[in-house]
Write a structure and sequence with these properties.
Number of strands: 0
CATH superfamily: Antibiotic binding domain of TipA-like multidrug resistance regulators
Strand content: under 5%
Structural class: mainly alpha
CATH class: Mainly Alpha
Number of helices: 7
Largest sheet: none
Shape: globular
Distance between the termini: 39 Å
Order of helices and strands: HHHHHHH
CATH architecture: Orthogonal Bundle
CATH topology: Globin-like
Length: 126
C-alpha cells in the first residue's frame, strides 16, 4: 500500500537519483524544512493562479501569463534553487511529459500544465 509517507519517500528517492548530482539539487537539500513546506504551498498557489489566467482566456504569451512565469522563477529561486532558463524550461517540459505532474497541476483546471509549459517555452525560448 502506498501511504502518503511512503509516496513522499519514493518521490524523494526518485528526485535524488535523477538530479542528486546537480547544483540545484544540492541547493534544495540545503534549505530548511520550513522552506520546503513553503515551496509546496507556494507552488500550489502559483499553479492555481496559472489556471485562473488560462480560464480567463489569456494566451500563454500574454502579459499576465508571462508575469506568472517570472513569479514562478523568482519563487523557485527564493525557496528551492537558482532557477535558470535551462531549469525552468526543463520544468515546463516535465509538467506535460510526466503524468504525475500533469495530473497534479491539471487538478486546478484541465490544460493548466500545458498552458504553463507553453508560457515557460515562450519566456525561455526553449
Amino acid at each position: 500500500m502506498n501511504t502518503p509517507n511512503h509516496e513522499a519517500e519514493r518521490r524523494a528517492a526518485e528526485a535524488k537519483a535523477r538530479w542528486g548530482q546537480t547544483e540545484a539539487y544540492r541547493q534544495y537539500e540545503a534549505r530548511p524544512e520550513r522552506d520546503r513546506e513553503a515551496l509546496a504551498a507556494g507552488m500550489d498557489r502559483l499553479m492555481a493562479a496559472f489556471a485562473v489566467c488560462k480560464q480567463s482566456g489569456a494566451p500563454a504569451d500574454s502579459a499576465p501569463a508571462q508575469r506568472l512565469t517570472e513569479e514562478l522563477r523568482a519563487f523557485l529561486t527564493a525557496h528551492a534553487y537558482d532557477c535558470t532558463d535551462e531549469i525552468l524550461a526543463g520544468l515546463g517540459r516535465t509538467y506535460v511529459s510526466d503524468p504525475r505532474f500533469r495530473a497534479n497541476i491539471d487538478r486546478h483546471g484541465e490544460g493548466t500544465a500545458a498552458f504553463i509549459a507553453r508560457a515557460i517555452e515562450i519566456r525561455t525560448g526553449r
